[in-house]
């Protein structure tokens, strides 16, 4: 498998099964995609999400009816507790060229990762389906360990553009940026006071 960052703005995402898992997957996509949840019943967790709901008993539907539901979808998630039904939806997606994630049953061609998100970065974590708990554990560790990552990226962005002006040798620019990144005192200062961290970075590593 290969990780990709997708822009799902305006794309149609279908979630089959509106229980706890279907609601979590719906919440994952609703920031960007046009999400429809198709299910016999709907979890209270779906309330407040910008998702459409469509009531249906999926096991009563023939393949043709399921194919009609899938029309125009970019990605589908099967999140019913019935693996045979989920796998059937998966086969129809494969036939129609629709990306497919299976919450229970045969693996589809998409895995939903744990995500660490800042305003300047995005980290996606997967164990290739082997242990979602480990993905979650890693996410929580990264969130704690790198709580100030956004500020470090901002500082790097700023120092990088200053360096481009004052340091003509690329290798030297790269060295200075690495030194700023690995300076524990600058990292500590970043947590409390961006301007102080910035001043330290300039004083220590930006002498042209
Ligand atoms: C393959 C995958 C398919 C997919 O893409 O959905 C999948 C499959 C399954 N998960 C199961 C169980 C749990 N999943 C979670 C939580 C998360 N699961 C997520 C992703 C994935 N889950 C994909 C692989 C990700 C990877 O590659 O690592 C996360 C990352 C993203 C998200 O769903 O939002 C999210 C954490 C978000 C976060 O907090 O950061 C918890 C809760 C917890 O851990 O607290 C439990 C209960 C504890 C446990 O069992 O671990 C079971 C049922 C097993 C059974 O019946 O016993 C199956 C089905 C099976 O295994 O057959
Ligand atoms: N991939 C993942 O991250 C995880 C997957 N799972 C697995 O996902 C499955 C779903 O879990 P939950 O959401 O907790 O179950 P749930 O019982 O809370 O919800 C299931 C939903 O599917 C709907 N449904 C069931 N059969 C249907 C049908 N024939 N037609 C239409 N709707 C139907 C129900 O109405 C309900 O809304 C389970 O098999 C569970 O083991 C569990 C935890 C995490």
Description:
The protein is an alpha/beta fold and 208 residues long. It folds into 3 domains: 112 residues, NAD(P)-binding Rossmann-like Domain (Rossmann fold, 3-Layer(aba) Sandwich); 34 residues, Double Stranded RNA Binding Domain; 57 residues. Helix content is 47%, strand content 18%. Strands 3-2-1-4-5 form a 5-stranded parallel β-sheet, with helices on both faces. A two-stranded antiparallel ribbon has the order 6-7. Strand 4, helix 3 and strand 5 form a beta-alpha-beta unit. Helix 5 runs antiparallel to helix 6 and helix 7 packs antiparallel against helix 8. The relative contact order is 0.10. The model has no long low-confidence stretch (mean pLDDT 96). The protein binds ligand SHN and 1,4-dihydronicotinamide adenine dinucleotide. The site of ligand SHN has 18 residues, from helix 1 and helix 4. This is precorrin-2 dehydrogenase.
Brief digest:
The protein has 208 residues and is an alpha/beta fold. The protein is 47% helix and 18% strand. The chain has helices at 20-29, 63-70, 83-96, 132-145, 149-166, 170-181, 184-192, 194-205, and strands spanning 12-18, 34-42, 51-55, 75-78, 99-102, 114-117, 122-125.
Rounded mean pLDDT is 96
Strand count, sense and barrel status of the largest sheet are: 5 strands, parallel
The total strand number stands at 7
Number of helices: 8
Secondary structure layout:
Elements: E1 12-18, H1 20-29, E2 34-42, E3 51-55, H2 63-70, E4 75-78, H3 83-96, E5 99-102, E6 114-117, E7 122-125, H4 132-145, H5 149-166, H6 170-181, H7 184-192, H8 194-205
Parallel strand pairs: 1-2, 1-4, 2-3, 4-5
Antiparallel strand pairs: 6-7
Helix pairs in contact: 2-3, 5-6, 7-8
Keywords: Coiled coil, NAD, Oxidoreductase, Porphyrin biosynthesis
InterPro entries: Met8-like, NAD(P)-bd_dom_sf, Sirohaem_synthase_N
Catalytic activity: precorrin-2 + NAD(+) = sirohydrochlorin + NADH + 2 H(+)
